[in-house]
Amino acid sequence: MSRPIFSEDEPGRKWDKCVTDAVLKTGGGVAIGAVCSLLFFSRKGWPLLFGGGFGIGMAYANCERALNNSLYGQTLLKSTKKC
């Protein structure tokens, strides 16, 4: 039997998902940067920072979208263009 989900718990759950997403994406970006650094860039440090920056940026965009949807509701934009 599943537990009921209260509306007070929703922001906390979203923040938990955001933190988890940020850790995973940043770690993945740094790992890919490390592999590229070892294979292609003769052990430079900038690919690690570049990959980590991409991971943080992607996590931030996903988190912002999730939190804004919960605050403002999921509204669908209707096209006003007439054919």
TrEMBL record:
InterPro entries: Mic10
Membrane topology label: Single-pass membrane protein
Subcellular location: Mitochondrion inner membrane
Pfam families in the cross-refs: DUF543
Keywords recorded for this protein, A-Z: Membrane, Mitochondrion, Mitochondrion inner membrane, Transmembrane, Transmembrane helix
A single cellular component GO annotation: MICOS complex
Highest taxon of the lineage: Eukaryota
Similarity field: Belongs to the MICOS complex subunit Mic10 family.
PANTHER family: MICOS COMPLEX SUBUNIT MIC10 (PTHR21304)
Subunit text: Component of the mitochondrial contact site and cristae organizing system (MICOS) complex.
Function per UniProt: Component of the MICOS complex, a large protein complex of the mitochondrial inner membrane that plays crucial roles in the maintenance of crista junctions, inner membrane architecture, and formation of contact sites to the outer membrane.
Name the record gives this protein: MICOS complex subunit MIC10
Species of provenance: Frankliniella occidentalis
